[in-house]
Every structure is written in structure tokens, then in C-alpha cells.
UniProtKB/TrEMBL annotation:
Subunit structure, interactors included: Associates with the 50S ribosomal subunit.
Function, in words: GTPase that plays an essential role in the late steps of ribosome biogenesis.
Any Pfam family: MMR_HSR1
Keyword Lipid biosynthesis: no
Protein name as catalogued: GTPase Der
Family: Belongs to the TRAFAC class TrmE-Era-EngA-EngB-Septin-like GTPase superfamily. EngA (Der) GTPase family.
Record Gene3D superfamilies: 3.30.300.20, P-loop containing nucleotide triphosphate hydrolases
Keyword list, A-Z: GTP-binding, Nucleotide-binding, Repeat, Ribosome biogenesis
Species annotation: Inquilinus ginsengisoli
Amino acid sequence: MPFTIAIIGRPNVGKSTLFNRLVGKRTALVDDLPGVTRDRRIGDGQLAHLSFRVIDTAGLEEAFDDSLEARMRQQTEIALQESDVALMMIDARAGVTPLDAHFANWLRRQGRPVILVANKCEGRAAEAGMHEAWALGLGEPVAISAAHGQGLVDLLDALRPLMPEDAGEDDSLVDDDDQVMPEEEGEGDVVDPEVELNRPIRLAIIGRPNVGKSTLMNALLRENRVLTGPEAGITRDAIMVDWSWRGQVIKLVDTAGLRRKARIDKIDDKLEFMSVGDTLETIRLAHVCVLVLDAGAIMDKQDLTIARHVIEEGRALVIAINKWDTVEDHAKALQQLSDKLQTSMPQVRGVPTVTMSALRNQKLDKLMDAVLDIHKVWNRRVRTGPLNRWLPAMLDAHPPQLVRGRRLKIRYITQVKARPPTFALFVSQAEEFPDSYLRYLVNGLRESFKLNGVPIRVVLRQPKNPYADKD
């Protein structure tokens, strides 16, 4: 395990801002409202030549019951146990509060090295708080401004004596997805399964609030990695965890629930707007999305909206019907789902559907098998030869209609990329090509080349007329 740093402190002192600064990305949600962060977030940080793993935590609250605040505190305690050093952060402009003093005493008893970090020190208003920080008994405070990047050199000097000499030489911190992936080699090449196995799959768990997304993530990881509970909307950040399933490397992402826009007030639910934006960005970057449905309300309007968005982004989709153990009439529920998919999403046939129970750990193997299978289809490439032997048969079975009295000519087809499968179709009148005939060809591609369940894109290309610019 690489050297690990946990950022700890009361709410709204700038922990997530420092986390984003250390990892070099705006991954954690940041806002002036206290209590934005709830789950612990792990990232790969760097200061100069020193590389390490950094954990962002929820604001410490003095709660020890079954409340949400108490569960957040437990997540912070787990982060401290996993860390080599803790950064105790205070707001220097606000000065030392009784809550700061309480948790400074708690940290001293945990047996971990602690560095006191005084944030928001970019002006004279922080001088009094800096002097007060000495009273916490954690040594000399390190003055920084996480928002402006000031004082990080001093933080580096404080961390260096606590870190191993080879901390900057850890290659495990390299994120494969941050590297430029080579394009598929040559026309019609098939991705080698053994090579693909070494590339992580970005798997996003999405859905409406309170359908069991976080419970599913914990069930897959077999640990209480993210907060769960009866309250709707607990998850705010998209939390990514590196994981593996039967040798396949997976970046598993839990996301915030997506409600209908009409139910979100832009002023009162500012954080939810930020969370929704984070979730939509996660979908855009995902390879496979697992849409979790509540068995008690299968595929309502919002579920369909989310599913359509996944398909429009070109991601592979798996539908997981959670809480299946609570359903009495299984056949009726499955028929209801099938009818809604056929009427509302005919453009994607064969989307894999898995019935499961995350709380009871039922059919998780079946769910992951469906994820790996649809990922292979999403990566599939079809050679140009078979495509152009298939095309004349489709044209003979149903010739294209006339457009302005002229017959459409379809000359050639080739696959230009995978992820999702994308084809270039060379035609005579691209701008006037009928949508109905394009759907006919897409359905033929899906059935003939076993591309069920994934979005298929067809780009119409028209050869340039060599006589167009001549008088």
C-alpha cells in the first residue's frame, strides 16, 4: 500500500478543496455550505516529487447514535485507521472552536502522526487563528490556502520526515485511464481479450434516489465502503473505488440519485444540482452503466429518462432490478419491464436485465457476468469484408425508397470505431437519407453481428461530386 494521508476536521474548513489541490483534479464537490462531503473519497496525490494516497473525509460531528452524522463519523474513523498520517485541518479565519479542540484531543489518542493545518491563511484575518492553533497541542500549525495553492511547500516540508524515502517512486499511483489509449490497429481488427483484461472497466452504478445503489456497491466490495441508510439522497459525490472481478480490473463508481428536474429547486437544492452534474459526468466517462431499479416501481418515467441518457452518451447499459425478494408476482413485473423497454426504447434491443437483491447479496455473480458480457459487445469490431457481403443482402430484401424521384445509392460500409460500435455508410444523398431506412440497417447490424444491447451509431458519408465546382 502506498503512503496514505487522511484529511480530517470539522465541517466547512476546506478539506475537499485541499483534496482537489493535492490530486490535481476537481473530483470532490466543493461549496460554502457545510457538510457537502459524506463518504470518504480516495485519490492519488502529489507534492513535488512525493507521491501518496490521500483520503478526503466528512466533517467530524460529535454523534454516536444511528444517525447519518454518526455513520459519517464512522467513515472518518475508518479513513484514519487506513492512513499513515492525519492532516488535522482548521479554519484559521474562524479561529479554534470547541469542536476543533474536542477532535484534536481525540486524534492525539489514536496513535497516528498528526500535522496541524491552518487553512484560509491568505489574509491578515487568519493571524489570530494561527496563534490560537498552538493551544491544540499538535505542534506548529502549517499555514496554507487550499483555494489559492499557498503554503504547500511548508506542507511538503512537514510531510517529508514522515514519508518513506521511496514515496515518489510508487508506480501503482498511475491511473490507466489518464494515459492516452492507442486506437484500434487497422481496419476490422478484433481487440485481444487478454489485452483488454488489463484495461480497467469504468462501471457506474446509477438510478433514482433510494433504490439501493450504495447498498449494491457495498455488496460487491463486501465492505461498508459508502454510506447507506433509509434516508433518500445520502450519496452526493461520485465515489470511485478500484476493484477486480475474476481478474478483470474495474473502476467501480457509486453516484448520487437522479431526480426529475422539476422536483429540484435551484436555490434550496444547490448541492443536488452539483451532485446531478457529477453523476452526468460520471455517465459520460463510464464504459458500462448499471441502472438500478426499485422492484416496487419498475421503469417509471425517470428511469426511462436516465436509460435514454446512457444510450445517447454511447455507453453500455445493464438494468438491475433491486429488492426482487419483495416482489410477489415475478412474471408480471418482468413483463411490465419488457413492455416499457419495447415501447420506449426500441432503438436498443436486448439490454440485459438482472433481478437481484443487494441487501441479501443475491445474484451479484449474474449481474457482473452481464456487465462483462455487454462490455465485450460494446468493444466488438466487425471486419469490412463481412459487412459489405451483408449490405447487398439487406438492399435486396428491402431496396431503399426514392428520394425526389431518384433512387438512393448505398455503396459501401465499414466500422470506423468501437466503444460503441460506429459505422460509416457511404451513400449518394446523405442529407436526405430516410430515418426509417437507417433504422432498418441498424436493426440488421444488431441481428446479424450480435450487437444486441449496445447503442449503434451510423455516420452517413457522401462522396464529393468532382463536377460540383465546374461551370
